[in-house]
């Protein structure tokens, strides 16, 4: 069994940070084909890169879904 697919595998902070930076870049309105190609090269360079990016996508999707729930909306709208 490949450790690259192990959901419990620890991802180094630097790799998680890089995945976050790539996520932000890919969502940017000025993201270019060159950016996408550089991302694909980064993602494919190491199984941990792919795993970190995929985990981030699950987190983002979950947060997008959960933000519509009443209790989460109430927390978001509270002024401190």
Explain what you see.
It is built from four helices and no strands. The protein has helices spanning 13-27, 33-45, 47-66, 70-77. The longest helix is centred in the last third of the chain and has 20 residues, at 47-66. The chain starts with 12 loop residues before the first helix and ends with a helix. The model has no long low-confidence stretch (mean pLDDT 85).
Layout of strands and helices, then pairs:
Blueprint: H1 13-27, H2 33-45, H3 47-66, H4 70-77
Reading the helices and strands in chain order gives HHHH
Q: Which whole number gives the mean pLDDT?
A: 85
> How many beta strands in the DSSP annotation?
0
> What fraction strand?
under 5%
Rg calc: 16 Å
Shape designation:
globular
Give the class from helix and strand content and strand pairing: mainly alpha
Q: What characterizes the major β-sheet? A: none
Give me the number of helical elements. 4
Brief sketch in words of this structure:
70% of the residues lie in helices and 0% in strands. The protein contains 4 helices and no strands.
What are the defining features of this structure?
mainly alpha, 80 residues, globular, 4 helices
């Amino acid at each position: 069994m490949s450790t690259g697919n192990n959901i419990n595998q620890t991802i180094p902070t630097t790799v998680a940070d890089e995945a976050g930076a790539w996520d932000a870049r890919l969502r940017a309105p000025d993201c270019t084909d060159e950016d996408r190609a550089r991302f694909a090269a980064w993602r494919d360079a190491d199984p941990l890169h792919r795993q970190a990016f995929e985990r981030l996508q699950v987190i983002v999707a979950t947060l997008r879904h959960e933000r519509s729930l009443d209790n989460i909306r109430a927390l978001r709208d509270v002024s401190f």
